TrEMBL record:
<protein>
    <submittedName>
        <fullName>Alkanesulfonate monooxygenase SsuD/methylene tetrahydromethanopterin reductase-like flavin-dependent oxidoreductase (Luciferase family)</fullName>
    </submittedName>
</protein>
């Protein structure tokens, strides 16, 4: 198994400024590299405390690149519907060059009706826009004098500039929330996968990862592909403090998410079957059940290691867990300590790499 660090800001500006959040996150990213973590990852959201401190993952990851030399830089994910593919391809290629080939390019469809309305994009086009942007970016990175003729995007002939550092192009990840069909398509096309267990059941996520692996193998792609699963991790020597932080942090996340998904009470889209249930899922959230179901990692190093052992049994040992250590308004010193504890006391049970770096 591999482990990375993930940044999903769910932060009240009245409690923590954007500059403070960025400063703290960049310090944790540099620490993660020093301790041997595999990657740094961040999201793309707009207009609210639900991820709104990360409107552009490329900008944040460029700052990480300037402070590090080895760790992978993961967009988790660029929302394909909100920009032109030539623009997205160029910005990602620039980051790949600035980092000397450390980019993993994750793409997502987006799922918040308010964000689609903000950009004047029809949610009914999200699948088409996503497929076209991923295909166009790969073509722009790999070829010259590219001509693209899609339903939404038409351009060319044009050569993508700058050319990416990695050849033929950076690894491509596809983010999927609940759809096994989307996971299978990612596997068939030879891409990698990003999933989030907090928004789906264990049975559903098992089906999603199985669909991905099966489709990738059937298509004859080399290797098993890479699967990143995102968790929030509250870790400390004192169990009571870690669990109290977890409860407060997760309840803050749920309250903030409730505002972000509220428009699903009225919105409907054939592209997002069942997403109207998000509102009820958020209302029904229960921290104790979430912890027992291993949707959140929390406790002492031994307890978190036991959770990861269970997760490995469910989804396989070829995973990369992308861990958020500074959710919400957790004090920085506790987030910093959690990163150190994970590297020294949890990771060695699953990989030797972090243990050697931590030593």
């Amino acid at each position: 198994m591999e482990f990375g660090v993930n940044f999903f800001p769910v932060v009240d500006p009245e409690r923590k400024s954007a500059s403070t959040y960025y400063d703290e996150s960049l310090r944790l990213a540099a620490l993660a590299e020093a301790l041997g973590f595999e990657h740094v990852q961040t999201v793309e959201h707009y207009g609210s405390p639900y991820g709104g401190y990360s409107p552009d993952p490329v900008v944040f990851l460029t700052a990480v690149a300037a402070r590090t030399s080895r760790i992978r830089l993961v967009t988790g994910a660029v929302i394909a519907a909100f920009a032109h593919p030539v623009q997205i391809a160029a910005r990602l290629a620039q980051l790949d060059n600035l980092s000397h080939g450390r980019l993993d390019a994750g793409f997502g469809r987006g799922f918040l009706p308010d964000e689609f309305e903000l950009f004047g994009v029809d949610m009914g086009e999200s699948r088409t826009r996503f497929d076209e942007v991923v295909d166009a970016c790969v073509a722009l990175w790999s070829g010259r004098e590219v001509r693209f003729e899609g339903e939404v995007h038409r351009f060319g002939p044009v050569t993508g500039f700058p050319r990416p550092y990695q050849r033929p192009h950076p690894p491509v990840f596809v983010a999927s929330a609940t759809s096994a069909a989307s996971c299978a398509l990612a596997g068939e096309r030879g891409h990698h996968l990003q999933v989030v267990p907090s928004v789906t059941s264990r049975e559903q996520l098992t089906a999603m990862t199985a669909a991905y692996r099966g489709a990738r193998a059937a298509a004859g792609h080399e290797g098993p592909g890479r699967i990143q699963i995102k968790y929030t991790c509250y870790l400390g020597e004192d169990r009571a403090t870690a669990l109290a932080d977890a409860r407060a942090g997760e309840e803050n996340y749920v309250r903030t998410m409730a505002g972000a998904v509220a428009s699903w009470a009225e919105a409907r889209s054939e592209q997002y079957p069942g997403y109207e249930a998000f509102v009820e899922k958020v209302r029904a959230y229960d921290f104790d059940r979430s912890l027992a179901d291993h949707k959140v990692l929390a406790g002492t190093p031994d307890e978190v290691a036991a959770q990861i052992e269970t997760i490995r049994g469910w989804y396989g040992d070829d995973l990369c867990l992308s861990l958020q250590f500074n959710p919400g308004h957790l004090p920085f010193d506790r987030a910093e300590r959690a990163v150190e504890l994970f590297a020294r006391e949890v990771a060695p049970a699953f990989t030797g790499g972090l243990a050697a770096a931590a030593a």
